[in-house]
Structures
1.
Amino acid sequence: MTTSTPPPSNLPSNEAHQLYLRQLATYLRESRQILDAWDAYADEHCDSETFEPFDEAAYGARQRQRDTDTLNAFGRVYFHADVLVDIAEHQLARLPASATSDYAWRLGELRTSTQKLYTLHRQWLDLRANLPTDAVPSTRAYNEPLAENRADAWHYLDQWGIHGQALIDINTQAHMQPQYSPQAPAQAPPPPEAAPKSPPALR
């Protein structure tokens, strides 16, 4: 699968890319911990046969906390998520076919999830701008649509937890190739244009 495809534009320095990958590794670890804690809670607080929660209100509150915690953890990756996928696609194109495994479809899942997350965040910013003046944080009129937006985002955050390791693995394999030479501009690029300009965890 080795080709001479050009690198993506605005490629970050190698140092910045390695930082992004370390931040991704932190997210993968923390999101796994959050999910494990959620699974343990669900096992303890749901009927083992019907899987229905014993207390729907408490269950819903705990689920919203899971969504918020996962989104906050992703904040480290948020602004350069597209860049990470761009670089991995470029690296993958330079790897031999025997090394590519199932990475291509995983990168597709990550790119789709990233765009969905950016879209959901823009939707929340638009919705928030049109809330009544008395709809402020901690009020029901504010918290309910925020919780719904974060609930919609959780699936795509989970996809990053499932497939994000592929970006690290592709980078490792790329660096093992003979004569690998990462591009290294002087400065890291700004956030990708597709990304909103504020982090998702901000209210």
2.
Amino acid sequence: MNDFGYNLLINLISSSIAGLLGAFVAFWIERNRRPKLTFEIEKPPVSLGNRTHLRILVHNQRMRFFERNPALMCSALIEFYYPDPDRIPVYSNDDGTAKSMQGRWACTPEPVQPILLPNGQQAKALPNIPHNVDIPVDEKCALDVAMRFSGEDVCYGWNNDGYFHVNFKNDKWRLSRGKYIVKVKVKTGGREFNQEFLLINDIEFRLSYH
């Protein structure tokens, strides 16, 4: 091989390596710019009159060197389990899997809002409340988990359905006094983030890390 052919081969190999390296770096950056959601317990619990609400804060973490993408169309599901080794669901489907409670994002409007009728009376309307939210970079959105009235032993899993039950008590997600594992699952962009917490429904009413 003469010098021309040798240099041509070296240039071709160098260009190929540079192209592959550039593609890898671009892929790595784009992959790491995807949203990264983390979970933390909101403290203190939220008091609304004689109701106490327990919530989880979902955080779209910021990157150090690159701008991360917003977490778009985040949807949440919550499951409740008894805290035993068998992980028996509190509420289950026919096949034994845990029933999932559609999550309510506290940053969205309440589904039931008073409206004034032409005759001066008030009625309640159901706006089109989305179950999905966008979480910008380095921002948090609160996700409701459970609610309890003051002086009562029973608490209830809390979502938009609770607004349509007497005294906000949805027996579909009724939780007696005790401890429960809460599994929070949030989906965005085809990916799922999840974390488990311990719900303590006793003299204290609080969430802890599991």
3.
Amino acid sequence: MDHESDEWQANVSGKKGEETECEKLSGILAERERLISDLKSQLAERERLAEERKERLVYLQAEFENFRKYFEREREQIVMLAEEHLMKDLLPTLDDFQCMLKSCQGSQGLEGVRLVFRNLMKVLESHGLEKIDATGKRFDPHYHEVVCTERCNCEDGMVLEEFQTGYMLKKKVLRPAKVKIAERCTIMDSRTEEGE
């Protein structure tokens, strides 16, 4: 019996030892699963933060690009406005040159003045200044300002004479041309004028 009892005890001890080993392994496995679960949670949190930061970065890049474009448009408008003011300030000088050229027909030094005027016009035209064609054109309120009218047999609304040259800067009217336009006479008007 002793032998059986020893065997039985060894058997029980072996089972207890196995259970203790199993419990240890189960504990280690549970601990590792908890650790893996914690790591997965941390990884998910880090991925969420990385995605948030990536979205924020994309937003900031778009915001910066919009600001850069806005700044560039503002700069172009400021430059254009400065050019416009300069051109408007120079228009009276151009007018003076034109009047002087008309009044100095045949005077000495006129060719020199013409040369200076042409050179000045070249520079201004290279910066976008254009003359508005008026004489012989149909009246257009966007480009012409009527100073007076004249009754004649010409087509109604035709520009007969230009008193002051109009100018545009890069397709924007700086100053309309001051003009005289035709007011068509009818047959009745002609008879009335003849009878008076």
